[in-house]
Amino acid sequence: MELYANGVQHSEFHPQRLLTGSVWDLLWLPALLHPTERYRRVLVLGLGGGSLIPPIRALLDPQTLVAVELDAPHLEVARDVFGVASLGVETHLADACQWLEEYQGPPFDLIIEDLFAPSNEQVTRAVPASLEWQRRLASHVSDQGMLVMNFGDWAEYRDSAVSGDEAMQGFSSRFRLSCGDCHNAVIAFSRSPARSVKLRRHLADIPELSTRDARGRLDYHIRQLD
Question: Could you tell me which SUPFAM superfamilies the record lists for this protein (predicted)?
Answer without folding.
Answer: S-adenosyl-L-methionine-dependent methyltransferases
